[in-house]
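Reference record
================
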Amino acid sequence: MVEFTLWDILRNLLLATRWTILLSLVSFVGGGLVGLLLLFARIGKRRFARMLAVGYIELFQGTPLLMQLFLAFFGLGLVGIDVPAWLAAGTALILWTAAFLAEIWRGCVESIARGQWEASASLGMGRLQQMRYVILPQALKIAIPPTVGFSVQVVKGTALTSIIGFVELSKAGSVVTNATFLPFTVYGLVALIYFALCWPLSKSSQILERKLNVAHRDH
């Protein structure tokens, strides 16, 4: 029987953590880009585009991420298309992340006083110019804390991708546990690694939110 030291266990978990971090970054960046498009559609003047954006957001917010992962991985397989686990995981997380970021950012944009829209319109600015030069710079400051805070949920969401075979931190924990028969040690280390990834993000969100509130009071 092969003996596993604590360092062997930790090394294997840290190697898998790279994929958790990479998947989180891809999901967050990709979801941010899609979410930005949804935001423009959601607050735009075209009724059809607004309805599509609202439908998309409600669909992805109203269904479990686990089900979305199953559909991304097994759904296309039913029609003979082989989807790699990493592609299904990335696609599902990007689409899921986009729905939540779009709503977070919409709330931030709509918190900007209506007078800002009216003042910029009186200067002859079009809708895109208003967003670019007046609304988004102000909304960005408000959006940073909740956006950073939501990134914690993205990191945690990557754990569900193990169910479709993507080998990230939680999946590696299961594999190492089966090899070592040390579930308490392995999953204790997995929990510590997740904490090390998520706590700085959560703390940063709280600090940014406090600074924003202080800036608002000073203003």
The chain has eight helices and no strands. The longest helix spans residues 6-43.
